[in-house]
Amino acid sequence: MDRNQLLELTNKYGGPLYVYNTDTIKNQYNNITTAFSKVKNVKINYAVKALSNVNILKVFKQLGSGLDTVSIQEVQLGLLAGFDPKDIIYTPNGVSLKEIEDVAKLGVQINIDNLSILELFGQKHPKIPVCIRINPHIMAGGNSKISVGHIDSKFGISIHQVPHIKRVVENTGMHINGIHMHTGSDILDIDTFLMATEILFDVAKNFKNIEFIDFGSGFKVPYKEGDIQTNISDLGKKLSKRFNDFCKEYGKDLTLMFEPGKYLVSQSGYFLAKVNVIKQTTSTVFAGIDSGLNHLIRPMFYNAYHKIENISNPKGRERFYSIVGYICETDTFGSNRRINEIREEDVLCFYNAGAYCFSMASNYNSRYRPAEVMIHDGKDYLIRKRETFEDIIRNQDIVI
């Protein structure tokens, strides 16, 4: 999207504002399906937690995607968006047995990641097919907070506990229909990921009636010029051949699954915020915007990088700024960034704002969450209204 279009949207809908371009989503979805076109059965399940607006989910339904969910609420959003329950997989962590049972009643695919729940669920519901999440003990991901497949991670059942899984399955008579892993976000090394897939193939051999293998996701997208990104085409060639060979060894055609979130929506998103104040100190020039970590927490949460441009003054002389928010706490979006001269009232654009941005927004400092706009088939739609004070107090009971 060009700067003028983004400025027009800011003028039309106000700011701060999230904007999503569905053309980018379609391109990313096609990239991954093309990369694995040599596999007979491929299923892409979009990770709802990345961006959960129902309108975005409807776009994925149109594309033929399934959904990867981590809570019963995400399952309900998927059903509201029109997904068939069989096209939704539910992979929670640390939830109660009751929530898993409630989701199972909705008819979606259950994925269990700990032995205790596996045994309890198998004893009570041996006829409901279950997928098992394995922890391959592989370190992958761009930050320790988004690396979830290593030995100290809370996610998944350890590969060293496969004998325990087999014992539970034998004792309960439950049906294991899938094997799953997720090593973490921002996969930098394809070979490391492929090593983890070999571990998953070895685990799959222990179960004779599986129907799919879910390799998770975590494919890295570029955040800046020259940035490293996961080579989906190369991964597709290497993993497709290995997967097809494994299907021959296993004796039937299995479904290859992925659950990308960031890869599909990150680059589709733009976050637009207005500059409130330029503040020069003895060492720094701050550009303070009408937003904060309550709207975009990723930079403060795990040092995520977002390219920031001054779309109001694209030809201005470049200077160095630290972009900060209005929250009563340190909330720095970028330090010492080289940006075209910023003036008060200018609009700044944050790129790669489609994944884990609005979905992690809050009302911290009792601020309103921003509006969301979707560009679909060339038209702009308001898909979430800006919050008001009534939204802040909606569920508060004043008792004194």
From TrEMBL:
Required cofactor(s): pyridoxal 5'-phosphate
InterPro entries, A to Z: Ala_racemase/Decarboxylase_C, DAP_deCOOHase_LysA, De-COase2_N, Orn/DAP/Arg_de-COase, PLP-binding_barrel
CDD domains, per database record: PLPDE_III_DapDC (cd06828)
UniProt modified residues of type N6-(pyridoxal phosphate)lysine: 49
A Pfam family assignment: Orn_Arg_deC_N
Alphabetic keyword roster: Amino-acid biosynthesis, Decarboxylase, Lyase, Lysine biosynthesis, Pyridoxal phosphate
Domain Orn/DAP/Arg decarboxylase 2 N-terminal: 23-266
Enzyme class: lyase
Binding site for substrate: 298, 302, 329, 356
Pathway: Amino-acid biosynthesis; L-lysine biosynthesis via DAP pathway; L-lysine from DL-2,6-diaminopimelate: step 1/1
Protein EC: 4.1.1.20
Enzymatic reactions: meso-2,6-diaminopimelate + H(+) = L-lysine + CO2
Source domain of life: Bacteria
Its job: Specifically catalyzes the decarboxylation of meso-diaminopimelate (meso-DAP) to L-lysine.
Family assignment from sequence similarity: Belongs to the Orn/Lys/Arg decarboxylase class-II family. LysA subfamily.
Official protein name in the record: Diaminopimelate decarboxylase
Organism: Tenacibaculum geojense
Source species taxonomy: Bacteria, Pseudomonadati, Bacteroidota, Flavobacteriia, Flavobacteriales
